[in-house]
Request: fold
Amino acid sequence: MAEQGKEIAASALDAVRSQHPLVHCITNYVTVNDCANALLALDASPIMSDEAADVDDITSICNALVLNIGTLNEATIAGMRAAADRASTLDHPIVLDPVGAGASKLRTKTASQLLDRYGVTILRGNMSEIKALAGTAASTRGVDVNPADVTTDDNLAESAAFARARARQAQVVVAITGAIDVVADANHAFAVRNGSALQGRITGAGCMLSALTGAFAASADTPLQAALGAVVSMGVAGELAASRMQEGDGNGSFRTYLLDALFNLSNAQLHSFARVEEVL
Amino acid sequence: MAEQGKEIAASALDAVRSQHPLVHCITNYVTVNDCANALLALDASPIMSDEAADVDDITSICNALVLNIGTLNEATIAGMRAAADRASTLDHPIVLDPVGAGASKLRTKTASQLLDRYGVTILRGNMSEIKALAGTAASTRGVDVNPADVTTDDNLAESAAFARARARQAQVVVAITGAIDVVADANHAFAVRNGSALQGRITGAGCMLSALTGAFAASADTPLQAALGAVVSMGVAGELAASRMQEGDGNGSFRTYLLDALFNLSNAQLHSFARVEEVL
Amino acid sequence: MAEQGKEIAASALDAVRSQHPLVHCITNYVTVNDCANALLALDASPIMSDEAADVDDITSICNALVLNIGTLNEATIAGMRAAADRASTLDHPIVLDPVGAGASKLRTKTASQLLDRYGVTILRGNMSEIKALAGTAASTRGVDVNPADVTTDDNLAESAAFARARARQAQVVVAITGAIDVVADANHAFAVRNGSALQGRITGAGCMLSALTGAFAASADTPLQAALGAVVSMGVAGELAASRMQEGDGNGSFRTYLLDALFNLSNAQLHSFARVEEVL
Reply:
């Protein structure tokens, strides 16, 4: 099963690199540059457009849509809805990143509506955000996970069961990222133990992952393979980036190294470094 | 007095690192990524939200609010007012960065109203911007200081007197940055002689400082200590970043080194390198 | 003629460095930070402002206006029109970057109107975008050039003729960038063979070039010299940045190196590395 997980991720990466998917992102202005560069690092192409009058044409020529609610406003909400409507009609994969769901009513409500009304394919967030959308979270700490929600070895089976249940209810693939990532569809849940703590010390690691998930969703055979490929790729890239850190380096250098690692990320590296297991 | 200034700054940095304040920023989209990474570098957490319908919830869960008018628009002005109103009610510290005040009527008016109507704690800008809000500036050069307004050894006593007077009138702490920074409350003014000329060759050095000032204001005992801690920290980080510059490096590398220096910045470094004196 | 092209570019760079032009940019939020840092790298100063109520004052104190439609919305379109109107009145040079023209009706229409109604000085885009504005393109691939539109040695004379014709019709200087760049006014077309393929693997290489073109337009004797200076400078900087790439580096490092190369770019480097020829 570990071998299968590695193989899925490595094949999914190859598919992105060979297909050069065009990914329409409506994403927050904090990390949008990193999202664009992360997509380019994997040989995909980004296009950003959030104006309701523009998104219909733009999403039509793309291969996937990524919705990230990190800096929501009334205008971009309208753009997200119009784009999601069009992408659903065209059967394009849609990735939803509910940044800060649970931290404000507007975020929770907007993400919930996007999830309920349109054909979201993959839901990617931290455990607090995913729980907030399920109506089961006490609170989030801004855009960070609530410590009480962290997946550990002790509660991994429980997290996996929650992820499968959410996937079944919402008819999506769920990717819940943290120190241990959980990726699940209705029937199968995988734990991914890649990544570096430094990813939490830059802004945008989660947003970049969601953007990449759009590229994987456009290229992989199934949404589960796409989510697994994206999560493993980002985790392995995080480790490779961390391994380049030298004296004097900090989160500025780590951000650069992370893009570099994505740029150079190979099938062979995923086979060597991926740590994936199915959680029954 | 120099020792006292160092001690204040170093203690303030320790407070940020141990308290991990959550800082709500309504800031311009030019340098917002740098602001987020600067906060993460000091173990603080950023959250960006500018939609009026979102800010009430967001600012309530934060420890400080930073308002930066670098790319104002009608929607974000409404967001700033709503957030400032809520933060005032909750007695959260508010930092105002009047980017480009004096360069347009909208900027001058918006910053003046924010300063007059809400409980701004710390006002951080260059001398032209601070003078524009006091109604005494001839003009600013866009977002840069007017050469006629630069604080030098020759006019330092005058700048300090102006800063103390402004602090008294507006009931804020004032941090006026430049080659020599002046930080003052109604009674005391300090000169800080840290920093590198390279900080003027990247975008965002001032914005990052204002964002960090929010983290310091959430953590320090007094607003004066917070402003002094932030100004000294950014100045020393700028020097440390400049010391890493090698042949071929330019402002791209300097930007990375500056974040790295903030990431690694320590109490001991502030004690070694801070150059602070009270100006009587 | 090759010597003349080098001399034009090198003199134009010197003019930017000595005049420190203030450049008003209304540009997309994806690459706006890179645009600001690119301008600062060449000793120019950026100011970003897109609110209709703000742009009149801001553009009045600037030396050039850059309009980039990469993330258009209704509010920024109004800002672009107001700024262009004011800049035209003041006879400030205006650079238009029609990002994604051809990819959506909103983009094509907005860029066409800006081109038709205001005194645009320099039009800078890829061949698909420029053709879309001329009404002759089949389609664009998002923000990337359509492979059918790429300028090669085989069709260079044709591209040059098209560029001259467009320059004549629209009364602008045209800078069409790609593997071979074509810069033309109504009478003369130049081919520039500088640059690195890595520029296509970061977001913002084109946007940065357009921002820099604003600085050159504010400083050079003629719009043709400005466009040639900007295109050659970015191309040579791209090559110098690529030459610093080491094992493990990717597009994260390349982005940093590109800013660094602009920061250090000299008259002598342009004389050594520029590859410019007139295309008759």
